[in-house]
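New to this. Help decode both lines:
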Amino acid sequence: MAAKGKNPSLVLAGRLGAYVTHSRHDVRELTRPAREAFASRFERQVDPEGLLSADERARRGEAARKAHFTRLALASVLARNRG
């Protein structure tokens, strides 16, 4: 079902395009560069000068990633409580 205010033919065309792409390609491979860039963002955030060991940078990067998503979850809870 089309979302309210959306053109149904555009919604179906977009859905068709997504299904064709998924049938022809491993979508995880198509999105791998974006996922890697997103993950490396946190490592650059915690070690901008590249001074930490790879293991320590990965550990801190993972903590920064978890903090990011926890911050988003908190903002979501607060927004729902306001509404």
